[in-house]
Design a protein that fits this description.
Keywords: ATP-binding, Coiled coil, Kinase, Membrane, Nucleotide-binding, Phosphoprotein, Signal, Transferase, Transmembrane, Transmembrane helix, Two-component regulatory system. One of its GO terms (molecular function) is protein dimerization activity. Its EC number is 2.7.13.3. It catalyses: ATP + protein L-histidine = ADP + protein N-phospho-L-histidine. It is an enzyme of class 2 (transferase). By secondary structure, the protein is mainly alpha-helical. The protein folds into four domains: 115 residues; 97 residues; 135 residues; 129 residues, Heat Shock Protein 90 (2-Layer Sandwich). The protein has 24 helices and five strands. Helix 22 links the parallel strand 1 and strand 2. The longest helix is centred in the middle third of the chain and has 132 residues. It is elongated, with a radius of gyration of 48 Å. The N terminus is likely disordered.
Length: 680
């Protein structure tokens, strides 16, 4: 037999769901019933993908929006459509933007609607705990806004979710609150019409047929009075709602074995379906109608009728309905004594349910297999049934506990928020006063400390400048001594050697010789030698090398003076057009001493054949690299060799010093200075 429906209103496929009702453009949003949401069903995966692709350009535009206020129509429109897709990232990103905007502008209805839309989105992708969580967040905001109508309709949606999850008593409690308010204050609400029907299914075991009929009649009376006037619902939604109501009533009659009533009511549903046709709706109603006739003994074509419904459900990819129809076919075939066909359809239902994690339907399929085919009563299948029963019980218990926890947390959070508002006001006042006092105290001590630091810094700068001046002065004295020595040598060459060469050449010219060719050759050689000595003399006397006593020259001369017993070749490379104006005097002094210490270590310990000193600029950083190919430094000696002194100088120079060494492969020291920091 066809199973009881799991949603209040019969699933109405969305023929116009993308037309949403929520695109209010005012700064303050007014609440209005979302009919698309009320009469919606979960779209299939294919439908979600199709909608997502269709609105991709608008989605990208909306995500790039920086000013939500000026683009509200676009954002609202895209959000309404994204809620029918599986594009979680885009939907939640836009929703959070809208929530922030609403909170900033104190637009409570827009904020609550955003939470309710998120719940709707999670409902479509079957994340029930998230659905309930956001329903409660929406309810709390509606409560702050004192919007009783919105709260009543929100409670209806909560009850519909709880019913679908099998939490009937919890659903009934929420539903009673919703109906109580709507009955008194909004008797023409479409939500009230649906709430009457849900109440029947919440109390199927408790209500008599007359009581259930009375509730259906109340809902039907409200709808039929609106026909042609369309005050409660638009024309499109009106016929969808009427079809749904007759379908639910027919399903109810079928479940309580009132087959004739089920047949007549299903006929009514089919009549109204023609005004707003949907294939999946037709498949469902046609199944009820066919079964109602069959159970009265009036339908020889029951198999063909059910197969027609199954084919529609399969074509439209509604797995849930496929499983239910397969179970019904298995039951009917068994009733017709066609055991193999019954087994085949029941196994198909079992396989589909298991593949799609439809535990309740999987359980029903196993029960039908065990009931109709004793050969299937294997220990494995019985174990699976027991496991499913436990799993379903645990799932329901876990869901109930989780929802209770969510509701408690939501209630607690609401109360805490009220208390926090008062406390925050007090705390802000006290904190403001304390902050002002603290700022004054901090400024006082900071200025005092800064003055001391500036005095210390100025003293250090003065000392470092003195050291640099001494280095330059020492270099000047050394260069002057070298230049004086060169001038003396040049004078001696000019006055002594050249004159001697001239006298020899002159006397040679005066000699009479038989070998005139040899005489001429020797005279020419002496002339050439005179010119060479003269050139050397002039070069020594007039040389301007090292006349510029810059920091760069200090480094050049320091490297040139290096020598050791290992015959290490020292190579210095300074980047072309590199200027040292970007670093301070303190930094120059410390760079010089670090380089001096490193070169001394190489001369003493490295046994290197080559050493490279490279100075270059990299991304506003002055980088000094000292690298040799020597024996390296053992780990137990890594803190010696003047490294501590170099690190201390690097710290003073606001530089980073890194040492890397491998045994028998050499050592490299890298000194890095941020020139931007130095300039500031």
């Amino acid at each position: 037999m066809l199973k009881k429906i799991t949603a209040v209103i019969y699933p109405l496929l969305f023929s116009g769901l993308i037309l949403g009702t929520s695109g209010c453009q005012d700064n303050k949003t007014t609440y209005q019933t979302d009919l698309d949401y009320l009469y919606s069903t979960k779209p299939t995966e294919g439908q979600r993908d199709s909608i997502s692709k269709a609105i991709e350009p608008q989605t990208l535009r909306a995500l790039k929006v920086k000013n939500i206020e000026s683009s509200l129509p676009l954002v609202d429109s895209v959000l309404d459509q994204l809620s029918w897709t599986g594009n979680k990232n885009a939907f939640l990103s836009l929703s959070q933007s809208v929530i922030k905007f609403a909170q900033k502008n104190k637009d409570l209805n827009r904020e609550a609607k955003a939470y309710q839309d998120i719940a709707f989105f999670y409902n479509n992708i079957e994340q029930s705990d998230s659905v309930y969580h956001y329903y409660l967040k929406a309810e709390n905001v509606y409560s702050i806004a004192q919007d009783s109508l919105a709260m009543a309709e929100n409670k209806y949606y909560q009850s519909r979710l709880l019913y679908r999850l099998g939490l009937f008593s919890e659903s009934k409690k929420k539903l009673t609150q919703s109906i109580d308010y709507l009955d008194r204050n909004k008797p023409k609400s479409p939500i009230l019409i649906e709430a009457y029907q849900l109440m029947i299914f919440c109390q199927t075991e408790e209500l008599s047929l007359d009581q259930a009929q009375t509730l259906f009649d109340q809902a039907l009376d409200k709808l039929t009075k609106d026909e042609g006037r369309f005050e409660i619902l638009t024309q499109q939604k009106y016929y969808s709602a009427l079809t749904g109501l007759y379908t639910n009533l027919a399903s109810y009659y079928l479940n309580i074995n009132e087959y004739k009533q089920a047949e007549l009511t299903a006929q009514q549903a089919l009549t109204y379906l023609n005004k707003e046709y949907s294939a999946i709706n037709y498949a469902y109603i046609h199944s009820i109608y066919a079964l109602a006739k069959y159970y009265q003994g009036n339908n020889e074509n029951i198999i063909e009728d059910l197969l027609l419904s199954y084919d529609i459900q399969k074509r439209l990819d509604y797995t849930n309905y496929q499983v239910e129809t397969s179970l019904t076919l298995g039951d009917i075939y068994n009733d017709l004594k066609q055991k193999q066909e019954s087994l085949d359809w029941t196994m198909k239902a079992y396989t589909l349910a298991k593949e799609n994690n439809l535990f309740r339907l999987q359980k029903e399929a196993i029960e039908l297999l065990l009931l109709n085919d004793k050969n299937k009563a294997t220990a494995l299948l019985i174990d699976e049934l027991i496991h499913l029963n436990r799993k379903l019980d645990l799932q329901q218990q876990t869901t109930r506990e989780k929802f209770t926890e969510i509701e408690y947390e939501s209630f607690t959070l609401s109360k805490e928020n009220e208390q926090l508002k008062y406390r925050i006001t007090i705390i802000i006042g006290v904190a403001t006063v304390l902050t002002i006092l603290l700022v004054f105290v901090i400024l006082f001590f900071r200025l005092k400390s800064r003055n001391k630091a500036l005095e210390s810094l100025n003293l250090r700068k003065s000392k470092d400048q003195e050291i640099l001046n001494l280095l330059i002065e020492n270099n000047n004295i050394e260069q002057q001594a070298v230049q004086n020595e060169r001038n003396r040598v040049a004078k001696d060459l000019h006055d002594g050697v050249i004159n001697s060469l001239f006298t020899i050449r002159f006397n040679l010219q005066q000699l009479e010789s038989k070998n005139t060719d040899m005489q001429t050759l020797l005279i020419n050689e002496l002339l050439s030698l005179e010119q060479i000595v003269r050139d050397i003399s002039h070069a020594l006397a007039q040389s301007n090398l090292f006349k510029n006593k810059s920091f760069e020259n200090l480094i050049v001369e320091l490297v040139q003076k290096q020598s050791n017993s290992f015959k290490t070749v020292f190579n210095l490379h300074i980047e072309q057009n590199l200027t040292f104006d970007c670093i301070t005097t303190i930094q120059k002094v410390n760079i010089y001493h670090i380089l001096q210490e490193a070169l001394q270590n190489i001369n003493k310990h490295s046994k290197a054949t080559e050493c490279l000193i490279d100075i270059a600029m990299q991304d506003h950083h002055l980088v000094v690299l000292i690298k040799d190919n020597g024996v390296g430094i053992a780990k137990n000696k890594i803190n010696g060799l003047g490294l501590a002194s170099m690190k201390e100088r690097a710290k003073v120079a606001q530089a980073t010093l890194n040492l890397s060494s491998k045994i028998q492969k050499g050592t490299s020291i890298t000194l890095t200075i941020d020139t931007k920091q130095a300039e500031s």
